[in-house]
Amino acid sequence: MTSLVLAASAVAFASMLAFCKPVEVIEAADAGQKECKPGPVVFCQPLPAGSNDEGCSSDDPSSKLLTELPRGLRYPTGCAINFVGARDVAGDCTLAGVCRCTGGADAGAPAPIPDGGDVDGSARDASAAEPVPVRWTCYP
Question: What is the rounded CA–CA span in Å between residue 24 and residue 38?
Fold first, then answer.
């Protein structure tokens, strides 16, 4: 009986070996690190040439980041631009900075109070608020 059990075990083991084949692992074509292209990634379209819409100029000298943009373009308020940096030690692309075109006639205007008065009871006219100048806000 012991030899019968040993024989059955040997047959089972041999059949397992027949079904287990070595596996060759082939790395997928897109498995490598994505390219990290330093420079601006713009999340809007520049304003058309000759447009009278409010916008920020790419010629603005307020941030060194803006020198990476093509010269002579204007971007609409609300436009955001990420500036990609080099790869960090973990292999991820770094974010060198972010600029956003902010301001305009409706930016910063105080919200009207529903009952028509301010805390001290005086009326506040939201239309009389000074418009916030359109400018780039960049970090860092």
Answer: 36
